[in-house]
Write a structure and sequence with these properties.
Number of strands of chain A: 11
Bound molecules: protoporphyrin IX containing FE, iron/sulfur cluster
Strand order of the largest sheet of chain B: 1-4
CATH architecture of chain B: 2-Layer Sandwich
Number of helices of chain B: 2
Low-confidence stretches of chain A: 1-22
Oligomer: heterodimer
Order of helices and strands of chain B: EHEEHE
Strand content of chain A: 5-15%
Largest interface: A-B, 25 and 22 residues
CATH superfamily of chain A: Cytochrome P450
Largest sheet of chain A: 6 strands, mixed
Helix content of chain A: 40-55%
CATH topology of chain B: Alpha-Beta Plaits
Mean pLDDT of chain B: 96
Order of helices and strands of chain A: HEHEEHEHHHHEHHHHHHHHEEEEHHEE
CATH class of chain B: Alpha Beta
Largest sheet of chain B: 2 strands, antiparallel
Number of domains of chain A: 1
Mean pLDDT of chain A: 91
CATH class of chain A: Mainly Alpha
Structural class of chain B: alpha+beta
Number of domains of chain B: 1
Shape of chain A: globular
Number of strands of chain B: 4
């Protein structure tokens, strides 16, 4: 059945029947056992056969799954699709996700003009020039972490010793958050991002982070510095609660994402020795290689949620006002129409049109920082450890199937 | 080719600056796009077209 036929049939039988469509795909869909780098086979199949398709969520509710590059960009770029999770019909991937809606929203879950007003308070802090100027500092941090990791040892967990502390140190520096508290916020982030956390746990972690950052904002009123939190305080437009919400978003988005991209990219390169060799031979490929790894791995892997505020046609299907949509970035980034041979990693590919950072007005604010961190982390790692290898059999690497941001829980390596 | 960048629409993540650094920049005060060269030489047209294509906010329009 084609998508157009099915929508017509559903239009006749009404939304109740649509919810009960037996063929609906259950999300989050599991990846195939042998291919931990590829999107779930059902989602790949959907993109080829029925690119805008029905999906069933954990609570039995249903939404649309948008899988092609063109359609994903169209939805995320269209103001008729809202990112406001308080709207009825908004698709939640977990019970914990729904739990968070009751507390203070951050601008990632707001629409313009409020979203733009808040985001613009931060755009200068993350612009290209500023982040490029951070290179020497990020380089120093990378070298120091590797000095420590390799000191008298020949094996370590790359996640705890390098991939996680690097972006954590950097985002703490930018925000003006004391790095000594990293165990506290890393654990709260883990709970917030785990698909398995109980709703109560999620709410408690959210509140603890909120209180912590609220107190931090208050302390900056008395002892200002040049970090982002302090500058938001100095603007005088936001109260401690608003600043804490923004800080929470930046703190979580700022360390979990880059950490997972670093470790997963390393593993991917080790599994693709020909690509690794190309990169080692010609380090000038690093910028393009990072874009290709962002595309190929797409660690924000569960689909970005939006809800239609009007009837909108997407890829030939009518999405009704009030219906939820998940935009599967990982599927869009494998779309053959844009990335021929996209199931293979090719560090020489022009991958700039990938949507690993999303698309539309919510497209990742921190992408200039993520790029600088990833380019430096990978270049430094490969240069300093020419004998880098996996220290356990590949089958034993613990993948983060259970997390909103994909990656590995640990990466035992030797050199 | 003539470039127009809509500063109201721009969300400031700087993709255009990466794609065509000779043509686009970001304002110091808020990271919003500024066009350095609204009628760039032909050698830069491909880069400018790429910038317009990857702009997430559809803020860059090209005429001529
Ligand atoms: C490899 C690293 C990263 C990836 C793959 C990534 C991915 C994403 C994606 C897909 C979105 C869009 C969410 C949506 O539209 O619903 C997003 C938004 C966002 N990201 Fe990132 N991100 C990364 C690193 C960072 C870093 C380092 C920061 C720094 C603080 C950051 C801060 C943000 C913020 C604040 C938003 C919300 C923007 C808005 O709603 O306007 N991200 N990110
Ligand atoms: S790519 Fe578009 S949204 Fe991003 S800075 Fe340039 S004009 Fe603004």
């Amino acid at each position: 059945m084609t998508t157009a036929e099915r929508t017509d049939a559903e239009r006749e039988t009404g939304p109740g029947a649509r919810t009960a469509t037996p063929a609906a795909l259950a999300v989050p869909a599991a990846r195939a056992g042998g291919c931990p780098f590829d999107p779930a086979p059902e989602i790949e199949r959907a993109r080829r056969e029925e690119p805008v398709t029905r999906a069933t969520l954990w609570d039995g509710s249903s939404c649309w799954l948008v899988t092609r590059h063109e359609d994903v960009r169209a939805v995320l770029g269209d103001p008729r699709f809202s990112a406001d999770a308080t709207r009825p019909g908004f698709p939640f991937l977990t019970a914990g996700g729904r739990e968070l809606v009751t507390s203070t929203p951050t601008f990632i879950r707001q629409d313009d003009p409020e979203h733009a007003r808040l985001r613009r308070m931060l755009t200068a802090d993350f612009m290209i020039k500023k982040m490029e100027a951070m290179r020497p500092e990020v380089q120093r941090i990378a070298e120091e972490l590797l000095d420590r990791m390799t000191d008298g040892r020949d094996a370590a967990d790359l996640v705890t010793e390098f991939a996680l502390p690097l972006p954590s140190l950097v985002i703490c520096l930018l925000l003006g958050v004391p790095y000594e508290d990293h165990a506290f916020f890393q654990e709260r982030s883990r709970i917030l991002l785990s698909l398995r956390s109980a709703p109560e746990e999620v709410r408690a972690s959210q509140q603890e982070l909120q209180q912590y950052l609220s107190r931090l904002a208050e302390s900056k009123r008395h002892t200002p510095d040049d970090g982002i939190v302090s500058r938001l305080v100095a603007r005088g437009e936001l109260d401690n609660g608003d600043i804490a919400s923004m800080g929470r978003l930046l703190l979580i988005a700022g360390h979990e994402t880059t950490a997972n991209m670093t470790a997963l990219s390393t593993l991917t390169l080790l599994r693709n020795p020909d690509q690794l060799a190309r990169l080692r031979e010609d380090p000038s490929l690093i910028k393009g290689a990072v874009e290709e790894l962002l595309r190929y791995l797409t660690i924000v892997h569960n689909g970005l949620p939006r809800v239609a505020t009007e009837d909108v046609s997407v890829g030939g299907v009518t999405v009704r006002a009030g219906e939820g949509v998940l935009c599967t970035l990982n599927s869009a980034n494998r779309d053959e129409a844009v990335f021929p041979g996209g199931d293979a990693l090719d560090v020489g590919r022009d991958a700039r049109r990938h949507v690993a950072f999303g698309f539309g007005v919510h497209q990742c604010l921190g992408q200039p920082l993520a790029r600088v961190e990833l380019q430096i982390a990978l270049e430094t790692l490969l240069r300093r450890l020419p004998g880098l290898r996996l220290a356990v059999p590949f089958e034993e690497v613990p993948f983060r199937h259970d997390m909103g941001i994909y990656g590995v829980h640990a990466l035992p390596v030797a050199w | 080719m003539r470039i127009h960048a809509d500063q109201e629409k721009c969300c400031g993540a700087g993709s255009c600056v990466l794609a065509a650094p000779d043509v686009f920049d970001q304002r110091d005060e808020d990271g919003i796009v500024v066009v350095l060269d609204a009628e760039p030489p032909a050698a830069l047209h491909d880069a400018v077209r790429e910038a317009a294509a990857i702009c997430p906010a559809a803020a860059i329009s090209l005429t001529g």
